[in-house]
Design a protein that fits this description.
Elements lengths: L12 H4 L4 H14 L5 E2 L11 H12 L12 H15 L8 E4 L2 H12 L5 E6 L3 H9 L3 E6 L10 H7 L4 E7 L11 H12 L5 E5 L24 E6 L12 E4 L2 H14 L5 H12 L3 H21 L15 E2 L10 E2 L2 E2 L3 H12 L1 E2 L1 E2 L9 E4 L4 H16 L3
């Protein structure tokens, strides 16, 4: 009988399809908790609030009404109409229901978009720090990521001049995330206008604008790049219900684009999965059309937590962090701490630093290399104030002890 190794059949893309450090640190924290260790986990970007009652009630009513069957791949007409209205009234984006593709989460909406327009050899400009799934998705589609870096001194926003210098005849897409995971950065209208000029000067270039954190904004104004002159046809706007409505487990997102691209995204989704859960879509209509009191209450809680985190981190010598105008993430630059020691442990990388913080001080964070910024770490403050207070005390004690 011939020896058979199933692993030998795996293709290279299975190695790249991994969110790596985020998953690793979150799982390590769970394992330690399972052994009885009092771990504070600041790893996963998941609201600790329950989904608002009116949305839950709408899902239950939809199930009882029999909406438990397959839905259209592009989404039910009622939700696509509600999303078209939402985009017009809240974002000044003019997309009809036929130009909206509902997906099983914003992550799938992004994958649908990338798979629809990116092929082998196409270049995609990515602004680091960026959400790890962007790079994975681009490589999965055969594209070539072109990574541009911005520092904390630049508010983690790559200047338009450097974006323009990176454009080549093979550039096809720029991925923009505002408000940003992991930094909380928010691009101003003037900054977006500079980026739009670059896009419009290129005959085959578009922008994918991920706006899923729009409701967790603490300062400034939310501007969608697709509203700028000439950018409607050049923009794929992605959003979802996970963050603002605390609906992570419901898996519902969407993308809006001109009809040929919207239909192509629907075809990609039809191949990879199917239409999103029907009673969840009907609950999403209730989310869009219902009261926003709970959404605002959550935003104010995140704001209070943001202030706790900023005050705590800024008290740690060697840690640099700018303002956090949006989201529930902090992304401090800890490069000044790299190379320092704790006993026999040398903190030569943020991976080692994060492992040490978890192993020795029971605080789980994520190394910045996962986001294209290896000198930083990410902390999610989508957890209780009590947990944040405990985490800050541990971080201050641990990092102040480094020699």
């Amino acid at each position: 009988m011939t020896d058979f190794d199933p692993a030998s059949l795996l293709v290279p893309r299975t190695q790249s399809a991994d969110e790596g450090p985020i998953v690793r640190m979150a799982q390590k924290a769970r394992d330690m908790r399972g052994r009885g260790v009092d771990v504070v986990s600041l790893t996963v970007g998941e609201p600790d609030f329950d989904t608002p009652d009116n949305i839950q009630a709408a899902a239950t009513a939809a199930m009882k009404a029999g909406f438990t069957h397959y839905s259209p791949v592009m989404g039910i007409p009622e939700l696509r109409t509600a999303l078209s209205k939402k985009l017009k009234t809240e974002n000044a984006l003019d997309y009809g229901p036929n130009e909206i593709c509902v997906a099983n989460g914003a992550k799938q909406a992004i994958a649908n978009a990338v798979l629809s327009i990116i092929d082998k050899g196409d270049e995609v400009i990515m602004l680091a720090p960026f959400w790890v799934s962007y790079e994975i998705g681009v490589r999965f589609a055969g594209g070539t990521p072109v990574v541009l870096h911005a520092s904390v001194e630049e508010d983690y926003k790559v200047p338009a001049r450097r974006i323009a210098e990176a454009v080549t005849p093979r550039t096809k897409l720029l991925i923009l995330n505002t408000p940003s995971n992991p930094t909380g950065a928010v691009w101003t209208k003037a900054e977006l206008e500079e980026i739009a000029k670059i896009i419009l000067a290129h005959p085959r270039m578009m922008v994918l604008s991920d706006e899923i954190y729009e409701y967790i904004l603490f300062g400034g104004q939310m501007v969608s790049i697709g509203t700028l002159p000439g950018m409607r046809e050049r923009t794929i706007t992605v959003n979802g219900f996970s963050k603002g409505f605390a609906m992570t487990g419901w898996r519902l997102g969407y993308a809006a684009a001109v009809e040929p691209i919207a239909k192509a995204m629907g075809r990609m989704q039809g191949i990879l999965s199917a239409g999103a859960n029907q009673f969840v879509q009907r609950a999403a209509v209730a989310a869009l059309e219902g009261p926003r009191d709970e959404v605002e209450r959550m935003r104010l809680r995140y704001l209070a937590r943001r202030d706790m985190v900023l005050n705590g981190l800024r008290a740690i010598p060697g840690m640099k962090i700018g303002d956090i105008p949006a989201t529930f993430y902090a992304f401090p630059d800890v490069s000044a701490l790299l190379g320092k020691k704790a006993g026999n442990h040398v903190m030569d990388t943020t991976d080692r630093l994060c492992d040490w913080l978890l192993d020795e001080h029971a605080v789980a964070t994520v190394p910045g290399g996962a986001f294209g910024a290896p000198g930083s770490i990410r902390l999610s403050f989508a957890c209780s104030e009590a947990e944040i207070e405990k985490a800050i005390a541990r971080l201050q004690k641990a990092l102040s002890s480094l020699l």
